[in-house]
Amino acid sequence: MLSRGGTLLRASLLGALFLPVLAFASCADAASDAISPEDASVRADAGLDGATDDGGCDASDNGCAPSCADFPWCPVPTNVSAFAALTSVWGSSKTDVWAVGSNGTVVHWDGATWTLAPTPTSFYPPKAPVKNTFNAIWGSGPNDVWIASATDAVFHARGYAGAATEWENARLPIEEGLDVPVFTIWGSSAADVRLAGRASFMFDEEGEILTVNAFTKTSLDDGGVDWRGEPGTASVLGIWGSAANDVWLVADNSAEVTWQRSMSLHATPAAGESGLAWTEVDTHSTVTLRAVWGSSKDDVWAVGDVGTIRHVTKANATDWEVVASPTREDLHAVWGSAADDVWAVGDAGTILHYDGRTWTTTRAALPAGKEPALYGVWGSARDDVWIVGDGVALHYTGGALGDAGGSR
Q1: Are 394 and 74 in contact (CB under 8 A)?
Q2: Neighbouring-strand partners of residue 203
Q3: Which of 71, 74, 83, 303 is the most interior residue, by most CB within 10 Å?
Q4: Number of domains into which the chain is organized
């Protein structure tokens, strides 16, 4: 759990902390290994890249790709292997959208076409391309973009420049050999960027070993970037805030407390001192929440396993409201353009929409029985929303959201 004011938590037993070191070893150093997002599996039958029409196939065939004219969501070619998973999507406008995924994949949408962007290179010589799975992407604007795979694979770009796009390595201060996955990035501005993931160890200035699961960006006098480790034992899966001093996170703390698969913390200004005070908020859930997003401090959503949906409607809430869900599929991401326009996506092609009253299902033009897992959602407006997943990028440009294929 994070502590008040971001003060670093001191570990109690030096020897005991080193016992699980091997469990935290990262695959990030090996180009041949990929760190996959939790629950993500790249399916060979989910390759739908470029399937935008029926190709003359029999509509009764389960492998036939339906016509986009009949569905609100349409697959768009990404020029990425159909065997790759796209795990996260973010943009600054409808002509500046990024997505990241497995095998070091980074792609950019310019309003007309998805194009492969240069793959970042490793921190250590011989500077090989990073072939990890990038789990998260976020930016404060078109000239400030962050992506992350693991604590030794965090990169920053000052905007998209085609083949000339440059990635600066900004690895987190975890000791070499103890690197772990990073699952989420969020910030309120270019000066306030937060990354989080699985817990690991770092040393403070006095040489004390700390257990940390999140990092906050700090700026150096020479213009460089440093990171402040935030204490915690849980695997943080989602972060969102309405401001730098109003931040929510969802996490899985079952590695530390067996029954605590669903943890949520809310940060608000610490009374009488600088920094933030973190308060645990009851999720009323026994399964993991994997993503969080809100339209304001009084309207926050979280989604997770077996279709779980939770809602907060007041800034000082002490627990999450249980919301009826139209699905039992695991949900991986949530995003909206407003309080009455919220999307959630998950396994088996699951796409849910909230209109301010109820959550309902909607569908994409995907072959029946071959709907891929979906991991990320983001949009620039109500009529410009992207979803990414196993071998697919889906685009919504407005129009009726009726479930063309019937209830699922």
Answers
A1: yes
A2: 209
A3: 303
A4: 1
Beta partners for 282? 319
Rg of the chain over Cα atoms, rounded to whole angstroms, equals 21
Q: Per residue in 163-207, pLDDT tens?
A: 999 999 999 999 888 999 999 999 999 999 999 999 999 987 778
pLDDT one-digit tens code per residue, 332-342: 999 999 999 99
CA–CA separation, 7 and 216 (whole Å): 12
Percentages helix, strand, coil for the chain (3-state, rounded to 5) are 5, 45, 50
Mention every residue, 6+ apart, whose C-beta is less than 8 A from residue 348. 329, 371, 373, 408
As a whole number of angstroms, the longest Cα–Cα distance in the chain is: 69
22: exposed, middle or buried (C-beta count within 10 Å: 0-12, 13-18, 19+)?
A: exposed
Q: What is the DSSP pairing of strand 114-116 with strand 106-109?
A: antiparallel
In a domain, 124, yes or no: yes
In a domain, 405, yes or no: no
pTM of the model: 0.84
Cβ contact 69:59 at 8 Å: no
User: 106: domain CATH number?
Assistant: 2.130.10.10
* Domain span holding position 356: 4-396
